[in-house]
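Case study: Protease.
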Amino acid sequence: MRLKDKKVIALLEEDFEDLELWYPVLRLREEGAIVDLVAKEAKKKYFGKYGVPAESDYSFSQIDVNDYDAILVPGGWAPDKLRRYREVLDMVRSMNEQQKPIGQICHAGWVLISAGILRGKKVTSTPGIKDDMTNAGSLWFDEAVVTDGHIVSSRRPPDLPPYVKAFADLLAAN
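Here is what the predicted structure looks like once written out:
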């Protein structure tokens, strides 16, 4: 269990991409990580784009980001909502400043854009937000997974296996 005792925040909001939340959460838990689902409200059910529910463990205000080793931002339409919360942007900025792993897939790049942390970074995302990513100053690549330092990015659900492997490898090394 190479990720035993590693703590990860998985951000949660309505209309998350079901696989992009659950696949990483379950894979990291299989490797021993503690993955907390963190949302605006604690103990609330949020529903993915395809109706799969996820109940938040904690609210943004109930956690201390410094107690965590990494953060995951799922895709779907949730990132457009998540990026509007000051607490989310503060968490992402804090993880960035501490060089802790940040995972983003699909539309999750919107959260990193709003946090202002992509200038000069090599990333990928769903091609639909390529212009947003490059306008934020990043270098965009059409690849299954791109790792630049502590930021691991991916395009969409078919890329989940190499994305989660890269994220878990980075988390294990930190």
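For the exam, be able to explain this: Residues 7-173 form a domain with the Rossmann fold fold (CATH 3.40.50.880).
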